[in-house]
């Protein structure tokens, strides 16, 4: 369970996240939607220690992540798939996946883990020896997801997985997120594609200029007049 309590984050004078609280229960998909610059990426970066908080708490199964070195966070079972994917472009697909397992003490299951990822993403298997930089955007997104899975996460933070992808690929990526959910993985999803984000989520939060302005059951938010006007193009 992930609990964010009264979290504030600033970049100098810019208050990017203002006293937000949110919870992600085990096994849930929770979406955080909002316009460009609302503070979504900053929130994910603060959870995994990439950006420092000004105040607040981020509890992951009772451990305060704000006091945990960021290289330890992955060992607690949390993986972060950043916006823009950040695959190692000059390394092969398989080498990128192997990097995902770097935090594991016991790497004897590497072959099984690779087989599990290749089973989920057959396209990565076909391209296992190809340099990651030569993959399409959708394939790089799959690689970033596969790399995260190599660390055996119970919780995944995903930042804009739909970014730059065709509608067909967005559907494919979201089908995989659903599959991860079916396997019991908890997901906190940040998306500008509010339609997809709300249709897949159990619950959602709306972030506007650093503040949470709405929260609730994702299907109910989809029917909410304000959400429809502001985020669903209705
Ligand atoms: P996007 O979808 O564009 O990533 P977002 O909702 O994720 O938007 P953030 O990237 O978290 O929003 O940005 C929140 C605010 O913080 C914005 O005003 C942004 O300009 C500012 N900001 C983000 N990163 C930095 C930084 N490294 N230095 C200064 N200001 C920043």
TrEMBL record:
<comment type="similarity">
    <text>Belongs to the ABC transporter superfamily.</text>
</comment>
<feature type="domain" description="ABC transporter">
    <location>
        <begin position="2"/>
        <end position="234"/>
    </location>
</feature>
<dbReference type="Pfam" id="PF00005">
    <property type="entry name" value="ABC_tran"/>
</dbReference>
<dbReference type="InterPro" id="IPR017871">
    <property type="entry name" value="ABC_transporter-like_CS"/>
</dbReference>
<dbReference type="GO" id="GO:0015807">
    <property type="term" value="P:L-amino acid transport"/>
</dbReference>
<dbReference type="InterPro" id="IPR052156">
    <property type="entry name" value="BCAA_Transport_ATP-bd_LivF"/>
</dbReference>
<keyword id="KW-0547">Nucleotide-binding</keyword>
<keyword id="KW-0067">ATP-binding</keyword>
<protein>
    <submittedName>
        <fullName>ABC transporter ATP-binding protein</fullName>
    </submittedName>
</protein>
<dbReference type="GO" id="GO:0005524">
    <property type="term" value="F:ATP binding"/>
</dbReference>
<dbReference type="InterPro" id="IPR003439">
    <property type="entry name" value="ABC_transporter-like_ATP-bd"/>
</dbReference>
<keyword id="KW-0813">Transport</keyword>
<dbReference type="InterPro" id="IPR030660">
    <property type="entry name" value="ABC_branched_ATPase_LivF/BraG"/>
</dbReference>
<dbReference type="InterPro" id="IPR003593">
    <property type="entry name" value="AAA+_ATPase"/>
</dbReference>
<dbReference type="GO" id="GO:0016887">
    <property type="term" value="F:ATP hydrolysis activity"/>
</dbReference>
<keyword id="KW-0029">Amino-acid transport</keyword>
<dbReference type="InterPro" id="IPR027417">
    <property type="entry name" value="P-loop_NTPase"/>
</dbReference>
<dbReference type="GO" id="GO:0015658">
    <property type="term" value="F:branched-chain amino acid transmembrane transporter activity"/>
</dbReference>
């Amino acid at each position: 369970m992930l609990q964010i309590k009264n979290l504030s984050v600033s970049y100098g004078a810019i208050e990017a996240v203002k006293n937000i609280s949110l919870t992600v229960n085990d096994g849930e998909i929770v979406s955080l939607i909002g316009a460009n610059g609302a503070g979504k990426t900053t929130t994910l970066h603060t959870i995994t220690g990439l950006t420092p908080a000004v105040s607040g708490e981020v509890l992951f199964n009772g451990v305060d992540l704000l006091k945990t070195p960021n290289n330890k966070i992955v060992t607690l079972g949390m993986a972060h798939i950043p916006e823009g994917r950040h695959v190692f472009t000059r390394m092969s697909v398989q080498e990128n996946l192997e990097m995902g397992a770097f935090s594991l003490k016991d790497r004897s299951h590497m072959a099984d883990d690779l087989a599990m990822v290749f089973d989920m993403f057959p396209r990565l298997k076909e391209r296992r020896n190809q340099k990651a930089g030569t993959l399409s955007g959708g394939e790089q997104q799959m690689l970033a997801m596969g790399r995260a899975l190599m660390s055996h996460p119970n919780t995944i933070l995903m930042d804009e997985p739909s970014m730059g992808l065709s509608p067909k690929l967005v559907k494919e990526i979201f089908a995989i997120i659903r599959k991860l959910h079916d396997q019991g993985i908890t997901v906190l999803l940040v998306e500008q594609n509010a339609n997809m984000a709300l249709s897949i989520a159990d619950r959602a939060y709306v972030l506007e200029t650093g503040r949470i302005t709405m929260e609730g059951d994702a299907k109910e938010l989809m029917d909410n007049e304000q959400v429809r006007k502001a985020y669903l193009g209705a």
